[in-house]
Design a protein that fits this description.
A two-stranded antiparallel ribbon has the order 1-2. It has helices at residues 48-58, 62-65, and strands at residues 7-10, 13-16. The N and C termini lie far apart (42 Å). Helix content is 17%, strand content 9%.
Length: 86
């Protein structure tokens, strides 16, 4: 069997978005870590003070954003969830 399943590394463990069907315990896996997607805020006209202020204002939502339920929105624009052309 050679199949790919997406997930995240969090708190020392790899958490899969979906569990592979019919997978037995002790099945060997290979994990590939991908670089995080970073945004250069300076190129978007935001300095460090503005970024810190925005981070502080949005910190109340961090728990929701980091939840497993929100993972589907990570690549929302690139997914098939786009509206059809008119």
């Amino acid at each position: 069997m050679l199949k790919s399943f997406e997930g995240v590394y969090r708190h020392g463990k790899v958490e899969l978005n979906d569990a592979p069907p019919d997978l037995e315990d002790e099945t060997r896996v290979i994990v590939t870590f991908l670089a995080p997607r970073l945004v250069d805020l300076r190129t978007r006209g935001m300095d460090e003070a503005q970024a810190a202020e925005l981070r502080s204002a949005l910190s109340a939502f961090a728990g929701d954003w980091d939840s497993d339920e929100m993972a589907g929105y990570d690549d929302y624009d690139a997914s098939s969830h786009q509206l059809p052309a008119r």
